[in-house]
Fold:
Amino acid sequence: GIQVEQSPPDLILQEGANSTLRCNFSDSVNNLQWFHQNPWGQLINLFYIPSGTKQNGRLSATTVATERYSLLYISSSQTTDSGVYFCASSNDYKLSFGAGTTVTVRA
Amino acid sequence: DAGVIQSPRHEVTEMGQEVTLRCKPISGHNSLFWYRQTMMRGLELLIYFNNNVPIDDSGMPEDRFSAKMPNASFSTLKIQPSEPRDSAVYFCASTPGGSYNEQFFGPGTRLTVL
Structure:
């Protein structure tokens, strides 16, 4: 399966700060998703982005498929952004997940 | 629209007991996945169904695990007998059309085997 590496593993932010999370994947993909796992354990879909750029409110994501990486941008972070952010990718049906980036936003 | 529904949300059982986890995919979705999340292994795919047929069960850890999808709106994951190392969060996900499409996850079932 595809190997997915996320960085950084941990991120501590002051409320209002901006940040960038990175996801590298080992092969060409036809599915790339970003998730936020909230403190209750739920996996919330953020983006389905096998290529290109998308924005949703304060969040945006870019995938450069030819260079095998994706970036998730969080702007004007809020305490509710805390949690674990997962990148997952596949070139068939099997989503391979990274180890996640744990984001802590302090008030 | 209702998302993926899983039940129970929490299950505590004793070693040796049978455990059945349930999933209702999003209506119209014809691909269903069961994943398991543990601290040691992260999120991993257990089994994938397409149009109610199991396509890939290579992630099922042992014969103690079995999964069924009797119809398009219901799937079960059964562990018999359960062991403490089965303690994990089990997620069900579904996707419409081809398996390359965006997968939507249920809230998960947190299983604790004592």
Observations:
- The two ends of chain B are 36 Å apart (CA to CA).
- The mean pLDDT of chain B is 94.
- The first strand of chain B starts at residue 5 and ends at 7.
- The CA atoms of residues 16 and 81 of chain B lie 4 Å apart.
